[in-house]
Fold this protein.
Amino acid sequence: MKSTQQFRAFGQGALDSLPMVLAAIPFGILFGVLAPANAIAGWVAVAFSALVFAGSSQYVAIGLLATGTPAVLIVLTTFIVNLRHLLYALGMLVPLQHVAKRSKIGLSFLLTDETYVTFNQRYLSGLREADRVPYYLGSGLFMYSNWQICTWIGLWAGSSLEGIEQLGLEFAMVTAFLAMMMPMFRHRKNIVSAMLAFTLAWFTRSWPHKTGIVFSVVVAALIAAQLDRLDPDITS
Amino acid sequence: MTEVLLILGMIAVTWGVRAAPFVLSNLVLSPRLLKFLNVVPAAVLAALVAEPILTPSVGAASPLQPELLAALICLLLGLMRAPMLVTVIVGMGSFWLLRLFL
């Protein structure tokens, strides 16, 4: 009886994540296609998806790898990009209060933007304590397996389609980044942050080892963060 | 070897960040740090697209190169609240067309 209930919660978590899973498909495939287009070995792309499992960070990492950025700076940039996950993990503290610390550390591996958003919506409309972990796993594992399959499909497509490197697919990443930025522009602070970072990155492009990117991001974000008057309603 | 270290480093800073609040049970972020974190993703994405968008325009006779024009089309689509996937497809399509005709 108890296990059927939990199984149902698992299925509900997966079902609620379906729109997010569908939205992630093109980006997973594109990641698999872009890795070889940027001279990144297939196994590195597979390992990124399987072990890192963080869409935007993976894109940023292959973008930096392709320009010959040293590993230390890529890890540092990934760290900065990932810091927003702190906000999600903090949001999970209360819903997962009843769960053992060790399990929570394991569960946090699957904590993506999508699973957090899905879980939080259901949690706010009421989710029994016993159903929370199965629901979370249903969402997280669905996202995870979908991301792996899409990466493989993309790698296969990238390697088996003739002349794919002449298509200028590296530019697809630029369009993907621009598309990802747009919803952020609802907050005017982000427009300032992006414009400053774009300009600074251009003028620091010849700095050694792509240090200009990290510099531009930190300076732009520090300045934009001060502009409270632009978005007075934002609290988080 | 570098790739293995890179992957290990990325696991550490991804899973590490996601698990941090569960490991450090009294972690509190200051409002100033939260404000900073909120504007970081937009800055990272913008910093990464600057070079690929502008470089072709600098060396060329005309600044109106396919990369710059396609990027402007993406921005326009975004302002019209086109779904992400539509922006990518139309952006790439216009990039290919512009490359054929410019």
